[in-house]
Design a protein that fits this description.
By secondary structure, the chain is mainly alpha-helical. The protein is about 65% helix and about 0% strand.
């Protein structure tokens, strides 16, 4: 989960796109958590509420209800953070229904699920549940499941070739292009089909956590989503340098810090 949050904060100054270089200040006074951090923390909170102790069983229905509650409560707490229009309407609705949309929101927030369960099938099932409460388009569900699966495989020690093969074989994403091939024509885009494969490529080409995030931001798209998704996969594969963890943690608001600390204790 921390990899997604770190990626979000690093990518935040470049949200509007246009950054076409890997040579940029990693953290600046403009680096701050966005809605991607808030919704990721909401998933973590929902898991902890649903399972109490790490390793406990839960149901999809219980998790879905807790996630609805966590999203609405946490996003209300941070109401001054910008949220996507469709998601904002979901938050405000008295009886919220999922949108038939495939923006990157479900893929960005899914990574805590990969740390909560110890088998791939369960991870992908709860990833589907987590997506469908707000975005029930097949592309949104495919994106959430693929990212959750990749994070889990990285956590289990699988190689990049293993992860690439699984994602292309099961989910059908084209991961044949390189970052250098993608970058020139790539532009700001919030859809899963035009964000998730690019985030995978940043992870697959990256040599360490920082390099992964720099490659994601350098595409010039929705930088915090790209960096959050690729950072989520890079965390279990490479680990996050301590200095980067410390500097990004300091940028979190107090209650965000509390959830992260609670999550780390729960996960252990």
């Amino acid at each position: 989960m921390l990899g997604a949050i770190v990626g979000d904060i690093i990518g935040s100054p470049y949200h509007a796109g246009g950054m076409k270089s890997e040579d940029f200040p990693l953290l600046t006074f403009k680096s701050r958590p966005t809605d991607d951090t808030v919704i990721t923390l909401a998933v973590a909170e929902a898991l902890m509420e649903s399972m109490k102790n790490h390793g406990d069983s839960t149901t999809g229905a219980k998790f879905a209800e807790n996630l609805k509650s966590s999203l609405r409560i946490l996003c209300k707490r941070y109401r001054n953070i910008r949220y996507g229009q469709g998601f904002y309407y979901w938050l405000r609705a008295k009886r919220p229904h999922p949108s038939y949309s495939f923006v990157s929101n479900p893929a960005v927030r899914v990574s805590p699920i990969s740390w909560a369960f110890d088998d791939l099938e369960t991870v992908e099932w709860f990833a589907e549940v987590s997506a469908a409460i707000t975005h029930d388009h097949p592309e949104a569900i495919r994106a959430a499941q693929s990212i959750a699966g990749a994070v889990f495989l990285a956590r289990m020690g699988h190689s990049k070739d293993d992860i690439r093969g699984y994602i292309t074989g099961k989910y059908g994403y084209d991961l044949s292009r390189t970052i250098e091939e993608i970058r020139p024509e790539y532009a700001y885009n919030t859809s899963c089909p035009d964000t998730v494969p690019e985030a995978f490529t940043a992870f697959l080409e990256g040599e360490n956590f920082e390099d992964v995030v720099r490659k994601a931001v350098s595409l010039g798209g929705e930088s915090e989503a790209l960096a959050a998704i690729s950072g989520a996969i890079a965390e279990p594969f490479f680990g996050i340098p301590t200095l980067i963890q410390v500097e990004t943690f300091e940028r979190l608001r107090n209650h965000m810090k509390y959830i992260v600390q609670k999550w780390e204790q729960w996960r252990d």
